[in-house]
Amino acid sequence: MQKILNGNEAVALALKQINPDVFAAYPITPSTHIPEVFSSYVANGEVDTEFVPVESEHSAMSACIGAAASGVRAVTATASQGLAYMHEVLWNASGMRLPILLANANRALSAPLSIHGDHSDSMSQRDTGWIQLYADSPQEAYDLTLQAYLIGENAKVRLPVMVCFDGFETSHLSTNVEVLEDKVAKDFVGEVKTLNPLLDLENPVTYGSYTNPDWFFEMRRSQHEGMQNAQKIISEVGKSFGKISGRDYAEPIETLEIEDAESVIVIVGASSGSATEAVVKLRSKGKKVGMLRVRSFRPFPFEAVANALKKAKRVAVCDKTMPAGGVGGPLFAEVSAALLANNLNPKVVNFIYGIGQRQFSPTHAEEIFAKLEEKDCERINFVNLRE
Amino acid sequence: MNFIPNLKTVSQNPQRLAAGHRLCPGCGIGVIVKQILTVTDQPIITVNATGCLEICTSAYPQTSWQIPWIHSLFQNSAAVASGIDAALKALERKGKLKQKPKIVVFAGDGGTYDIGLQALSGLAERNHEVVYVCLDNEGYMNTGYQRSSASPLGAATTTTPAGKKIPGKQTNRKNITAILAAHNIPYVAQASPHNHADLMLKAHKAFKAKGVAFLNVFSPCPTNWKSAPALGMEVAKAAVETNFWPLFEVENGKYRLDYEPKERKPIDEFLKGQKRFKHLFKPENAELKNRLQAEVDTRFAEIKQLSQM
What we know:
The complex is a heterodimer. Chain A is of the alpha/beta class. Chain A contains 13 helices and 16 strands. Chain A folds into 2 domains: 2-245, Rossmann fold (3-Layer(aba) Sandwich), CATH 3.40.50; 253-382, Rossmann fold. In chain A, the strands form 3 sheets. A 7-stranded mixed beta sheet of chain A has the order 3-2-4-5-7-6-13, sandwiched between helices. An 8-stranded mixed beta sheet of chain B has the order 2-1-3-4-6-5-7-8, with helices on both faces. By secondary structure, chain B is α/β, with parallel strands linked by helices. Chain B has one domain: Thiamin diphosphate (ThDP)-binding fold, Pyr/PP domains (Rossmann fold, 3-Layer(aba) Sandwich). Chain B has helices at 7-10, 29-38, 52-57, 77-93, 109-114, 117-126, 176-181, 196-208, 222-225, 232-241, 268-271, 286-307, and strands at 44-48, 69-71, 102-108, 131-136, 187-191, 213-218, 248-251, 254-257. At the A-B interface, helix 3, helix 5 and strand 9 of A face strand 2, helix 4 and helix 6 of B.
């Protein structure tokens, strides 16, 4: 069944079908629409969820921790400063292995203040131990939201999941979304899978204990293993989602014209649309170009990425966040390392684009392919930027 | 209220905090926690802010907790408790809750007056069914006594030392109990563990409250107050007898002074056994001590007046 929905509405609808137990949220542009729409479901009795209108994002994630540790499904939605404000709580949620769901409408961080989209918010949370899935459209935001709990609650994973989608470019883009029948979605998502909940009153558990150097490292290692295991579980869940929807998510990446491509754009999120148009246009002119979109950033699918790029001669890695003094943006660093680990040595160049939602059109993607062929191309380049 | 805390009766209730925790000798916290958790036979889930109680009862792979217990962060225990309350409500709505436990938060004054105030205010405004207990030992004790906004005027702390120019903390303590009362929640009270009958009656009322209950409990810290461990409860008693720590409650908006000493003792009686106040007895600090006495009398008169309204 098709519906015209924007990204926020698509996520809210997926959440309605999931019918989580607790939704704790604090408003922030551009994700505010999610708790707004969901509140109307609550007010009209269409869900059983307890909506907690918390006084900050820090408390939103904290309330999710309380709920998830109790043994129920908890969710929040946020963006930008809100996600940054949650930072220490994100570590706490993953450290306690609580499969919380967070919908993030990617937005730039202040200062200067920008309410517009880029990936600096979630990319700066990439080491918090959360699974991070990046959607390219309202459709994917809907689909990934429905898959999130099945990934996070898996006994081999037990980690929180962040579904990221571009602020405005996806959150406010109204488009056709293929939605599942309520029953099909509910059956797919199923009941919460708990592990040592606080509410098991007969078997009391101690959550969030204090550890000394003799135990802390082992716990972090176990968390790392959960993240490693997530690669396989993401694929399994994605595959079974494909069976009920016709949209298969078994691969953590999406590729276009990559088999014989000499120049490849590697990108995350909605701007892959512009890259797609450029690839189609340049292919019609006989240029051997392709695209690779990374959907799962954490865990990073380093083998799938290296495998897809094994024939590429030139790779343009596009980051929608600033390098901040690094060798390049975070995607650039990951892709470069994946190539190196697999003894691949194509020319790899970093393109920074879309900062504070600076326009990124198919023409800009074409310019990237042209620049990539230049002999003395800098390691870090800025797309559509005034000098 | 026909509940009379009877030690014989309540001692039959399950022991929630096991013996063998690592709290200091003479510390008020273990006593307070046991007194509060003993008054009910209902199941309890405990949320603990970062601090002495958390550190001293949860060192992995051991735990002193015989009931479900969660510690998340320093400032978010009120929000974590909100999430648990929301989970209980959702499960109740779905008919999936077999037995409804009470939710009790334990946080220090740092986690309550300072860094956790916003989350606590949110909890109070949303009126979750949570008993929030502040273990007030007047400073950041787990890290060696830095001043908090609960540290009293004149106190020598590691961040307000009694120096040659500045003799200890220069500002009055924050009136957190009044702040919580201003949220118009069902039950707010101040108590002290030396008067266990009063504290346990208040805990009982807190458990019965329809919504948030806030208990601010005076918790002696011999380690950092530099007082005799064996006299922990004596110091608490002196705090009440000097009106430094009035025992009162605000039940559905109505203030009630629960105890007034026949003759208010001078503040010196509270200060004298604690080295953190030693400098206040120097002649050059007489005025500072007078200011503290005046502040104590003003606050007490205020509560007395409110309870006569």
